[in-house]
Amino acid sequence: MLKKQTRQASGGEAEVAVRRGRPPGDPEAKRAELLKAATSVIAQEGYANASLRKVAQRAGYTTGAVTYYFANKEELVLALVESRFDRYDAMIEDIQAETAIEALFERWLRLTTSDPEFWPVMSELLAHARHDPALAAVYKQRYARFREVYTSILAAGQVRGTVRDDISADLLADQLSAMADGWALLFPLEPERFTPDRARKLVDAAVALIAPVPGARH
What we know:
Elements: E1 2-9, E2 12-19, H1 27-45, H2 52-59, H3 63-69, H4 73-95, H5 101-113, H6 118-129, H7 133-160, H8 169-186, H9 196-209
Antiparallel strand pairs: 1-2
């Protein structure tokens, strides 16, 4: 059913058709549409100012349509974080067989810098997770998965002699993860610094830092 809402436009009032109740069409596609709207709202207004009403307005639905899929803001945010991490998982699955840390960094930078809303949203939600145990649990679980993959790739590199082995693979994984997160947190603030050329140099620098150290004790 369509509900007419009147909104103030620059040239006067305009009627906008807003869909009421369950959004028509494929449920998964509609969930994705609502998560995209939530991403935009949080990226532009912050977590504290986000609401189901604003997400509904951004997607062109009523609030009731949003609550058909997500009972409350907390449930919507959990689904949003999971969907963001699912993109990481797909990336890792795609490159894990290559066992090359360079490939992981390159794909990661491409993923996070190609979407200007990706890290503003993730940093907002990461800050909120300090006060939300359920959200914190999701971050811990999904980050543990990434560190496990980083560690396995680095350990394989140590066996091949392409990664320094005077520092354990799990410590290197923690260090690289923190470095990558730091880049991502700065990107929304200084996008002009993260040109494709600089991104390539950052990857090269990270690889150089984990390269075998001549004369190091094993």
